[in-house]
């Protein structure tokens, strides 16, 4: 069994979990010696192969004896979406051409449903035809469709797992949750009653391990914690590191935020951005000022007064908020989203009570102390370190 993308957070955790399984021989793929060193540091006894599956000849050597491949990789196009799509396609091409491959487990993301998941009257349709609204989501959806199509063509079983928001020690989601929990101005929308569509890293690894080593059905599946709300996720984080529980946001304020996301559209966002611009700064350009005067001459006076009054109020509000410094952190749309549409994999019994695991709590607490505690080294310490290296 091979893990492609083993240097990433999920890939490295999966590699460690599979390496500890006696019945599995796991191979971790790294593109270069630096990646191999990262894998070896976290999983010393693992077999590591260096090379790129995008190279046809190298792919045969890297995966030639593997019958199951777990693809955790997502190529970066350096800001060029078309290049990212091409690289992801080449990764999948290299995997599927492995001579002994029987199954590909491809990890996708909840982002294919959009940053904000709306309620859908036809859940099955929303699941089969998701509409991502971010480049990350579009890249994930493209990769999973490409994988499914090429696996069918090569008669390779393909299971696609759309992962929920992964949290746990070392994850970006846990860091963001703890940063919000430490901000006294933050309020949790709807008191955290929203389905989180989240999954702990340990539960994710245990589930994928059981699926990959057992019998995994072909198709597309959601993978998230069973009935885990954002209140559960936030309370687990705060209790693990010794912080106070996050205060709830009122239902009225939560509904207003949600209504804003429900009304969100490209045209609407552009119009709202335009009406929020300070006209005073815009009028500093002579050409714009002259064009605006010509337009205002032909505009009914009541409409002009209404626009100017609204603009003055917005500018005044921004000025007061900046002086007070009391603006609450922005609420991400995922904390207001509906549940993922479509079928979800049922977590094994051993993976359901991650929040009750003392090991997971201690691991989060240790990781939190490492990145949240400021360094205490003095100038003399740094000077001695430089002299030692010299």
List the helices and strands and how they pair.
Elements: E1 2-4, H1 9-19, E2 27-30, H2 33-42, E3 47-50, H3 56-63, E4 68-71, H4 81-96, E5 103-109, H5 123-128, H6 135-154, E6 157-163, E7 165-167, H7 172-181, E8 198-200, H8 201-213, E9 219-223, H9 230-241, H10 251-262, H11 266-276, H12 279-282, H13 286-297, H14 301-324, H15 358-372, H16 379-389
Parallel strand pairs: 1-2, 1-4, 2-3, 4-5, 5-6, 6-9, 7-8
Keyword list:
390 residues; alpha/beta; 2 domains; 16 helices; 9 strands
Could you explain the architecture of this structure?
- This protein has 390 residues and is α/β, with parallel strands linked by helices.
- It folds into 2 domains: 2-246 and 337-372, NAD(P)-binding Rossmann-like Domain (Rossmann fold), CATH 3.40.50; 251-324, no CATH class.
- It has 16 helices and 9 strands.
- The chain has helices at 9-19, 33-42, 56-63, 81-96, 123-128, 135-154, 172-181, 201-213, 230-241, 251-262, 266-276, 279-282, 286-297, 301-324, 358-372, 379-389; strands spanning 2-4, 27-30, 47-50, 68-71, 103-109, 157-163, 165-167, 198-200, 219-223.
- The strands form 2 sheets. Strands 3-2-1-4-5-6-9 form a 7-stranded parallel beta sheet, with helices on both faces. Strands 7-8 form a two-stranded parallel ribbon.
- The longest helix is centred in the C-terminal third of the chain and has 24 residues, at 301-324.
- The protein is globular.
- 32% of the residues are buried.
- The model is unreliable at 319-325 (pLDDT under 50).
């Amino acid at each position: 069994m091979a893990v492609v993308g083993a240097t990433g957070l999920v890939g490295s955790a999966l590699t460690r979990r599979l390496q500890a399984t006696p019945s599995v021989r796991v191979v971790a793929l790294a593109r270069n010696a630096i990646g191999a060193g990262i894998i070896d540091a976290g999983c010393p006894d693992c077999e590591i192969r260096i090379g790129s599956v995008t190279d046809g000849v190298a792919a045969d050597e890297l995966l030639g004896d593997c019958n199951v491949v777990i693809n955790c990789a997502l190529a970066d196009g350096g800001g060029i979406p078309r290049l990212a799509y091409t690289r992801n396609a080449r990764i999948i091409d290299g995997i599927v051409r492995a001579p002994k491959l029987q199954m590909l487990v491809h990890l996708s993301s909840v982002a294919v449903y959009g940053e904000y998941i709306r309620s859908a009257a036809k859940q099955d349709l929303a699941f089969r035809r998701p509409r991502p609204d971010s480049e990350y989501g579009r890249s994930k959806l493209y990769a999973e469709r490409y994988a499914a199509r090429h696996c069918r063509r090569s008669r390779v079983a393909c299971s696609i797992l759309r992962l929920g928001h992964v949290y746990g020690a070392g994850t970006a989601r846990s860091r963001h949750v703890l940063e919000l929990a430490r901000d006294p101005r933050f309020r949790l929308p709807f008191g955290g009653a929203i389905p989180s569509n989240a999954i702990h890293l340990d539960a994710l690894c245990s589930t994928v391990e059981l699926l990959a080593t057992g019998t995994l059905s072909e198709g597309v599946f959601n993978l998230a914690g069973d009935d885990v709300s954002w209140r559960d996720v936030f309370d687990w984080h705060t209790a693990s590191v010794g912080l106070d529980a996050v205060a709830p946001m009122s239902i009225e304020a939560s509904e207003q935020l949600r209504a804003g996301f429900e009304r969100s559209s490209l045209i609407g966002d552009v119009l709202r951005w335009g009406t929020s611009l300070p006209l005073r700064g815009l009028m500093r350009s002579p050409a714009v000022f002259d064009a605006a005067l010509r337009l205002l001459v032909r505009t009914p006076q009541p409409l002009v007064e209404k626009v100017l009054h609204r603009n003055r109020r917005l500018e005044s509000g921004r000025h007061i908020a900046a002086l007070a410094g009391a603006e609450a952190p922005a609420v991400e749309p995922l904390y207001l989203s509906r549940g993922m549409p479509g079928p979800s994999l049922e977590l094994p019994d051993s993976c359901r009570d991650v929040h009750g695991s003392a090991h997971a709590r201690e691991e989060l607490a240790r990781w939190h102390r490492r990145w949240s505690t400021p360094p205490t080294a003095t100038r003399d310490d740094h000077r001695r370190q430089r002299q030692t290296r010299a």
